[in-house]
Amino acid sequence: MDTAFTEEQDEIRRTVRESLAKRCGPGEVKSAVLTGHGYDEDLWRLLSGQLGLPGLTVPEEYGGAGCGGVELALACEEAGRVLLPSPLLASTVLSTPLVRSLGTDAQRAALLPRLASGALTAALAVPGGALPLALGLVGADATEGAEAAAGDGRGRAPDADWSGGGRAGGVQARRVDRTDGTGGTDDGWRLYGEAAQILSGHSAGLLLVAAHTGGFVRGRTLLFLVREGAEGLVRARQTGLDETRAVARAELRDTPAELLGHDDAAAVRDALARVGASAAAALAAEAVGAADGALERTVEYVKTREQFGRAIGSFQAVQHRLADVYVRVQAARSAAYYAAWETSGPGPAASGNGPGPVPGPVPGSVSAGLALAQALDALRLAAGEAVQLHGGVGFTWEHEAHLYFKRAAGDDLLLGPAHRLRDHAAARAGLFAPPSPPPPSPSPTLETGADAAVRA
Fold it and tell me: Which residues form the Acyl-CoA dehydrogenase/oxidase N-terminal domain (predicted)?
């Protein structure tokens, strides 16, 4: 297998890096996060119109570039290197693939061209901060290994309760009859509940809301489309640990919604699991880029900072610490791109009748989680060393090293943490399967006199 990047992939990396280097200095990033959208809208239009980043993995028939997960990982790595504030992760990585795999022909034709051009951004709203659980990257509890063994064949628990489960909390959906304007009625949906920590949720023109419906008898989780300005939708930006990732809270007060695709909970579970694997690979590449960016800035600083009459980068102890970071970053980069390549396999064919569940494990479901865990560890190490080796200035809250430090802490909570990713991957791979129960011992029987005589 040839693991070298192609000329086109190298060109994608070079172009994105040069474009971001001109517009994403530390001061510009800090200014962008203070705007209403939480990112530089002019830069997003540049990345969308000239570079086509939102449409990298969208098929050409819908106005995209038709590329795969490796090309998206390249763009994400360069975005992570400068801590780019943008809706790339929320819209391109998480939401667009769900529309592509679950949407009807009419929904894909209406939404995918606008998403690919960047004119429309979308956000995935999962209640209760259960995004990693919904995407199948972590388990619900310590018994996930047994649940996965008895699950749906994709390493997921059969009835995840993350969307509300019919109890208080989460987002609930109910079907209603509405007049279609011609004297007849058709089926519609209404949502009520709340979801928090929605990536780019305050500025997205479209929300993909995961809601529970059917009550206790026919309980299932489906995805719904809620447009900007919908009746009963109240959104507010939240204060987040990582200021370069804008998050929001959304309240749905009997809000009208459109079902994404069809009433097929199995297809929704499968689509979320596939998006979870590809998102983990993309976020791993982004974390690798952030770790490499922090390492690069630290190396430049230790070359110029002098102590005892010489640059501190000449001290062997400093060199050893930076060498450890370099090795961890390179190992994490290899794992991230392997996961991106593996998750680029063919998914379920989209059709007007809705994609059906595909038997067997999701491609890259194990490697993507492990790659993300390794990248998160590398980023945490690189950010910590950046703060330490910058000395007194590195401990000041205003220094750019803290942007990387908060990105490391925020990413660990976004789709992790790392130890839960590893635990769930081990459960999927069956590394710690429970031992088989011993065969039942024969029950004792009473021996009659005739039996004793025959045995004698």
Answer: 6-118
Number of neighbours of residue 411 by Cβ within 10 angstroms: 26
Euclidean distance between CA atoms 148 and 159, whole angstroms: 11
Q: Using alpha carbons only, what angle is made at residue 71 by residues 65 and 74, rounded to the nearest 5 degrees?
A: 135
- Tokens 């939480």 correspond to 38
Report the chain's C-alpha Rg in angstroms: 25
Q: What confidence tens digit (pLDDT) does each residue in 192-234 have?
A: 999 999 999 999 999 999 999 987 667 889 999 999 999 999 9
Contact (Cβ atoms closer than 8 angstroms) between residue 367 and residue 335: yes
Q: What is the C-alpha to C-alpha distance for residues 18 and 21, in angstroms, rounded to an integer?
A: 5
User: How many degrees, rounded to 5, is the angle at CA 399 between CA 395 and CA 400?
Assistant: 120
Among left, alpha and beta (phi > 0; psi -120 to 50; other), residue 181 is left
| pTM listed for this prediction | 0.86
The DSSP element (H or E) to which 210 belongs, if any, is: strand 206-213
CB-based contact 83:404 (threshold 8 Å): yes
For 170, list phi and psi in degrees, rounded to 5: 70, -160
